[in-house]
Specification:
7-stranded mixed β-sheet, globular, 3-stranded mixed β-sheet, alpha/beta
Length: 197
């Protein structure tokens, strides 16, 4: 599996290691490349969009010509995992004119709705298709406040969606790469074989 991590910002190394763990659980080798310029995405089977600062990520994706390639990747039905700021950038509406959202996930998002850095928290959450709770790390997490009718809500906190699936894109408000548990990456990239653990 050829995996690309959008590496303009965020937890690049952590996502690379997480996708390697998920692939290994399915007896698959994962070659991971860091994407900072156009021309790399078309060779990738799966993409990871880490967190970071959504306005910066959005600006760099469009400036470098990567945004159009990500849209083509999704249009071809290839998987994407977008986390935290990655969710904001992939949304249909980031409610911020500074973010040129990609429109890949039919949700609207409130940036930092769970609070500032000091309001970061961790929680055990129930995730559809996982038999046991997932330890989720929320850091300046965005809130999904509107979900399109074809979007599947995978997890909630206080009745608010924090993980969704829209076609080949899985997006989370939290940072699954900050734990040793590869199951969210598993759901994104091996949905037909997701580990029931």
């Amino acid at each position: 599996m050829h995996a690309g991590v959008i590496a303009v910002q965020g937890d690049v190394a952590e996502h690379a290691e997480a996708v390697r763990r998920a692939a290994a659980a399915h007896d698959t080798d994962a070659t991971v490349v860091e994407i900072r310029e156009a021309g790399v995405v078309p060779d990738c089977d799966v993409l990871l969009m880490p967190g970071g600062e959504s306005t910066t990520i959005s600006r760099l994706l469009h400036r470098e010509g990567i945004a159009a390639e990500i849209r083509e990747h999704v249009a071809a039905g290839k998987p994407v995992l977008a986390t935290c700021a990655g969710l904001i950038v992939c949304s249909r509406d980031a409610k911020d004119d500074r973010v040129d959202a990609l429109g890949l996930v039919d949700v609207s998002v409130d940036r930092n709705a769970f609070g500032r850095q000091k309001d970061s928290f961790e929680a055990e959450i129930a995730v559809d298709e996982l038999a046991s709770p997932f330890h989720a790390v929320f850091i300046r997490a965005p809130l999904i406040d509107d979900v399109g009718e074809d979007v599947e809500v995978l997890a909630t906190v206080d009745d608010r969606p924090v993980a969704v699936r829209d076609g080949p894109v899985v997006a989370t408000s939290f940072h699954p790469e900050l734990t040793a548990d590869p199951r969210i990456h598993d759901l994104a990239f091996f949905p037909a074989e997701a580990v029931q653990a």
